[in-house]
Design brief:
Layout: H1 2-22, E1 36-38, E2 45-48, E3 52-57, E4 64-71, E5 76-87, E6 90-96, E7 105-113, E8 117-129, E9 138-141, H2 150-163, E10 167-171, H3 181-191, E11 198-201, H4 204-207, H5 213-218, E12 224-228, E13 231-235, H6 246-257, E14 263-267, E15 279-280, H7 296-299, H8 302-314, E16 317-321, E17 332-333
Parallel strand pairs: 2-8, 9-10, 10-11, 13-14, 14-16, 15-17
Antiparallel strand pairs: 1-3, 3-6, 4-5, 4-7, 5-6, 7-8, 12-13
Helix pairs in contact: 2-3, 6-8
Length: 335
């Protein structure tokens, strides 16, 4: 009996030690905007064979001799620079993607001269496809809440690598508090194993502690959009208050109007509709009629709710993804 007790204690000690070791990934944190403003590991560029890769670089106006590569542990490809332009304090570079290269997720490596020879790697920021898919497979995850959710996120990475969607969208609450260093260490450590590009947007917990200053340093702008061939994905920030501002919603209306021919996908953290199942008829001029079907933070701000729903309906947004409520909820608006 005594030997069994000792063995049990030893096994538990090994397991606990393994968990503790896993909980302290040795990752050096640095701003993902340090050199390359776009693309980023959490706002990647998806491209196709013979297509164009857009890169925005923080460098002086005198920077020159641009050389670009996309590479991973299996291969490296030099890119042809097709244009370079300095404006708005950034370099806008365009590279041609070669054909017949493996359709994989790549690091971007830039070499250039800016007072001295410089080299910079933006990890996991370019996804190459053979051509644009007729149907876009999206892996939707949300509310990871690192560091506490590290083991769940690790399992999620494993399962997403089995499913292999075209892209992953994480709709906020990436970290539990934005100032917890280990939360971002967890994120970068575990995300490096993903075989699919991931797009982030902020939730209320990503604003906690420093109003998303670290989030913007390590992840994405607070709101953004990207074009993927026939698809357009836009993300807005519902902040700690649980709804988007009028200014941000006006920005959304503007960028959606600039791409009338795209299939539009919108992502944000706090769901505007909290009504699981069924269809909902929405009159954007009278959203008070569905107030009881809205999430409270939107229901208490009907001007912003009405503006969002009007924008979604007028621009024929085909899919909205949200998080926050920690459960599945699917609704169809004005089918």
């Amino acid at each position: 009996m005594k030997a069994k007790t000792i063995l049990t204690i030893l096994v538990l000690t090994v397991v606990l030690f393994s968990i503790i070791s896993f909980a302290v990934p040795k990752i050096k944190l640095r701003s993902v905007r340090e050199v390359v403003e776009y693309p980023r590991p959490s706002l990647p560029e998806v491209v196709v064979w013979n297509g164009e890769l857009l890169v925005k670089v923080n460098a002086s106006q005198n920077a020159k001799n641009w050389i670009g590569y996309i590479e991973n542990e299996h291969c490296s490809y030099k890119l042809e620079l097709t244009s370079s332009d300095y404006r708005e304090g950034l370099w806008f570079l365009a590279f041609k993607i070669p054909d017949k290269i493996p359709p994989l997720l790549y690091d971007l490596r830039l070499e250039f001269y800016d007072g001295e020879e410089k080299s910079h790697i933006q990890p996991r920021s370019v996804r190459v496809l053979k051509d644009w898919p007729e149907k876009l497979a999206i892996g939707h995850i949300t509310d990871i809440h690192l560091p506490g959710g590290a083991q769940v996120y690790a399992r999620c990475v494993y399962e997403l690598n089995l499913i292999r969607p075209h892209i992953i969208i994480a709709t906020g609450d990436i970290v539990d508090v934005d100032t917890i260093r280990s939360a971002w260490q967890y994120y970068f450590f575990l995300s490096q194993f993903l075989k699919t590009p991931i797009f982030l947007l902020p939730g209320n917990h990503d604003h906690a502690g420093d109003d998303a200053k670290n989030y913007q340093k390590f992840a994405t702008p607070l709101y953004w959009y990207t074009i993927m061939g026939p698809y357009m994905i836009a993300a807005i920030d519902t902040r700690s208050d649980g709804f988007a501002t009028v200014e941000e919603l006006e920005w959304l209306d503007q960028v959606l109007s600039e791409h009338p021919d795209k299939v539009k996908i919108l992502a944000f953290h706090h769901p505007i509709i909290d009504y699981p199942g069924g269809e909902i008829k929405v009159d954007p001029e009278n959203v008070e009629q569905i107030k009881n079907k809205m999430y409270p933070s939107w229901a208490e701000n009907l001007e912003e709710a009405g503006l969002l729903l009007k924008t979604v309906i007028e621009h024929d947004v085909r899919l909205m993804l949200a998080g926050h409520i920690h459960r599945d909820s699917i609704a169809i608006i004005n089918d």
